Structures are given as C-alpha cells and as structure tokens.
Amino acid sequence: MAMKSKVLIIGGTGYLGKRLVKASLGQGHQTYVLHRPEIGVDIEKVQMLLSFKQQGAHLVSGSFSDQQSLVNAVKLVDVVICAISGVHIRSHQILLQLKLVDAIKEAGNVKRFLPSEFGTDPARMENAMEPGRVTFDDKMVVRRAIEEAGIPFTYVSANCFAGYFLGGLCQPGFILPSKDHVSLLGDGNQKAIYVDEDDIATYTIKTIDDPRTLNKTVYIRPPKNILSQREVVQIWEKLIGKELHKSSIPAHEFLASMKDQNYAEQVGLTHYYHVCYEGCLANFEIGEGAEEASKLYPEVKYTSVEDYMKRYL
C-alpha cells in the first residue's frame, strides 16, 4: 500500500476548510493546518485549531505576509489544499494564492496543489457578467500561475454548496426554507447541482493521491442532486406535506433589482443569475481532460438533496 500523502490545508478554520481538515484526518492523511497569526484573538478560530490538534492534526504557523513562513510550511508536505474564501459576502482573497504559488515553486517538493475553487468552473465563465465575473477572472489568474510554474494540480468544481442553495430553496438571501412561499427564478426549470459540503470535502481528499485526477478538473455531480429549483421545491413540499405559494421573478426584474445592492451582494447575485437563469452548471457534458467525482468514487455514499433537506424539518 502506497504511503498516503501529507497534506497542508490553508484556510482550515473556514466554512469548507474545517470540513477538509476533518476529511483529511478521516482518510488517514498526516494533516497540517496553517495557523495564520492574522486570526489574532478570534477565539472561535483559535479553539477550532486546538480541536484539530486534539484530533491529530499538526498546526504550522505561517502568513501570506511572510513568504519564508509559507515556504517552510509547504516543505513539510506532499499536497497543498487552499480553501481561503472567494465569496465576497465573507471575504474575497483568491489572489493571495499567488504568494502560495511562489512558495510552492520555491519549495519544489509539492506533488499536487488544489487551489481554492470549489464552485463554478471558472474556465467556462469567460462570458460572465460584471461584477460577478471577478471571482472567475481571479481564479483563472491563479490557474495560469500554477500552470506556468509547472506545479501539478487538481481543480475541484463542486457546483452549489447545499447549505447556501438548498437551505433557501435556491433564493438569494435565504438560508432557511419557508413553509409558505417561494420565489422561482424565471420558470424555475434550469438544472443546477447541489452538494453537501461534507461530501465536497470527502471527494476532494479522495482526489489527492489519485493519478486519474492529476492535472485535471474534477466536477462533483452526484446524479440524484442534478435538479431544477422547481424540483428542489417539490422535494421540500413532499417533506412538509404542503404545497408552497409560488411567484416568479423574471430575469429582467432580477437584474434590475441588483442595481440597488452593494458590490458584494451584486457579485453573489450575478452568480445566482448564471446558475438559476442560464443553467451554467449542468448545461454541458464533461469532456476530455476532466473527471466526475461520483463516478470515480462510487464507494462514497453521498447525501441526496432529500436527505439533506430533512434537517430543516
């Protein structure tokens, strides 16, 4: 049995990062978590780091403002996974990864780098709208730097985080499902793909020692979870035993309403537009040079949309 790679997770106290730490430890990898002094006295993050340590992770100090500390951290491991936020309503730090690319290049020992992706495949979003396209443009800047440096990579496109999309029945600004009313985006028939955040982490860690995913994009498309907003609503109605009152927001109204929002909100709403009005996640076949996670790892019992939504009952 080949030795499992040692893994460094950056952004390990974040929404997805903490799940990646758990999955890495759970799959038997020696797991290192970057402790950034910038977290200061954020007691919740500090306590989370200490709990990782109790579970067997190694904490390693490092900062994006101290290049040598990044090089030293990277030298400890085989695989680097970055999960720093690219969501404007939280914080958008995607381009900080260019410092990480430089550190990986200088260290020279990393067998695989997984940058902070985990959403829509940015390579398919060259025609995305302003201002939301900044997310995709920045991710492509990082990809180009990785590829120009000759760093082996895997890009994980995890589509919709279930907590954000299913919790609000695919309505922006909601993360708990109503038992009365839902606003359909357009006709509500565009397909999207919803993935439990714990499953995203499980699949991601599975890819890191897999030669089939080297220098490729891995899409996470669990077959039961490729559904339209209408189908998500129907599942919820079945669970609560009641039909919701439905109204519809036409595309032109949705776009017009964005203009009153602040920049961060506009970025997020643009992403909703591409997903829910254009169906950008599910309207293409996965071609050559890419893989699909649920096919590669049929042993993973992923959470279906219906099972995920039972938590809201």
From TrEMBL:
Residues 3-309 form the NmrA-like domain. Its EC number is 1.23.1.1, 1.23.1.2. Keywords: NADP, Oxidoreductase. It is an enzyme of class 1 (oxidoreductase). One of its GO terms (molecular function) is lariciresinol reductase activity. SUPFAM superfamilies: NAD(P)-binding Rossmann-fold domains. It comes from the Eukaryota. Gene3D superfamilies: NAD(P)-binding Rossmann-like Domain (3.40.50.720), UDP-galactose 4-epimerase, domain 1 (3.90.25.10). Pfam families: NmrA (PF05368). InterPro entries: NAD(P)-bd_dom_sf, NmrA-like, NmrA-type/Isoflavone_red_sf, PCBER-like. One of its GO terms (biological process) is (+)-pinoresinol catabolic process. PANTHER family: NMRA-LIKE DOMAIN-CONTAINING PROTEIN, PINORESINOL REDUCTASE-RELATED. Dimer. Belongs to the NmrA-type oxidoreductase family. Isoflavone reductase subfamily. This is (+)-lariciresinol reductase. It comes from Corchorus olitorius. The lineage of its organism: Eukaryota, Viridiplantae, Streptophyta, Embryophyta, Tracheophyta.
